[in-house]
């Protein structure tokens, strides 16, 4: 069998050349990093859960007409996606003060924001993903005003939809990070949602107790990260019947 070509290895995923032109295989690792990858661990089974959770959320978003790169899940750790040109921005949507925003502006974590706020970070590891404004983005050409407009509109729709979806299963969507890509279809380009949506890149709090069900459990040494991610999957109704043990084996999931 011909060995497939690796295109890129990131902190939590590896991208391989897909079976057809214009496709990519996205492999979810168990590696977990925080604080610019200065803190690292391998959390067994995390990649399997993120693959399932992201598949589910991208599927739901696709069903309401949000264009995404997602094609299908291939197995426990891999999904087939469309090849896109990634816009070098992290688009963060916030509903409740937490993390870097709470720190920067001296807000108490958990304070609802007067309205939802979108922020942009320039994806550049050596610069530690600095916070940037729309002015920087268009002036340096990371995205055109039209691209930016599309990303903002999609982010607002995604936030409205996911806030309701999570609240329906007793989870508060505090904030999350999205990445977008340019998908070329002949001479026509459109902005689509790319990367992943999982507890690695969202803040998810239990709606009643405010218990953290996301990567903050790792960032803040709280423990119980797999249990929290499994609980998110279980509440979304996508946990395999037999529970977590099924997450580890080499068996293919249909
Ligand atoms: N986030 C992310 N990747 C990053 C930075 C942030 O997925 O490189 C997510 C993070 O999980 C949270 C949201 O974006 O849901 C806002 O993160 P914040 O700016 O508060 O930074 P943090 O406190 O995570 O450093």
Describe the structure in your own words.
With 254 residues, the chain is an alpha+beta fold. It folds into two domains: 6-84 and 225-235, Phosphorylase Kinase, domain 1 (2-Layer Sandwich); 85-206, ATP-grasp fold, B domain (D-amino Acid Aminotransferase, Chain A, domain 1), CATH 3.30.470.20. Helices cover 27% and strands 32% of the residues. The protein contains six helices and 14 strands. The strands form three sheets. Strands 8, 9, 10, 11, 12, 13 and 14 form a seven-stranded antiparallel sheet that branches. A five-stranded antiparallel sheet has the order 1-2-3-7-6, with helices on one face. It has a two-stranded antiparallel sheet with strand order 4-5. The longest helix has 23 residues, at 145-167. The structure holds uridine-5'-diphosphate (UDP). Uridine-5'-diphosphate binds at residues 90, 92, 98-101, 129, 175-177, 201-203, 215.
């Amino acid at each position: 069998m011909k060995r497939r070509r690796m295109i890129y290895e990131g902190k939590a995923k590896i991208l391989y050349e897909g079976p057809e032109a214009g496709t990519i295989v996205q492999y979810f690792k168990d590696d977990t990093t925080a604080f610019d990858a200065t803190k690292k661990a391998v959390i067994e089974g995390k990649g399997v859960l993120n693959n399932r959770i992201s598949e589910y959320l991208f599927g739901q978003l696709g069903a309401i007409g949000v264009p995404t790169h997602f094609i299908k899940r291939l197995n426990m750790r891999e999904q087939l996606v469309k090849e896109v040109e990634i816009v070098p921005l992290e688009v963060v949507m916030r509903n409740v003060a937490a993390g870097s925003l709470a720190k920067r502006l001296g807000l108490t974590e958990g304070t609802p924001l007067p309205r939802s706020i979108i922020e942009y970070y320039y994806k550049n590891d050596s610069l530690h993903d600095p916070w940037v404004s729309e002015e920087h983005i268009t002036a340096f050409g990371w995205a055109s005003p039209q691209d930016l407009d599309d990303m903002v509109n999609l982010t607002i729709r995604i936030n409205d939809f996911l806030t309701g979806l999570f609240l329906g299963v007793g989870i508060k969507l505090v904030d999350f990070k999205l990445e977008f890509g340019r998908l070329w279809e002949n001479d026509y380009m459109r902005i689509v949602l790319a990367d992943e949506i999982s507890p690695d890149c969202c803040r998810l709090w239990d709606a009643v107790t405010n218990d953290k069900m996301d990567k903050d459990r790792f960032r803040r040494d709280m423990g119980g990260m797999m249990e929290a991610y499994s609980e998110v999957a279980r509440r979304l109704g996508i946990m395999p019947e037999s529970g977590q043990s099924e997450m580890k084996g080499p068996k293919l999931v249909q």
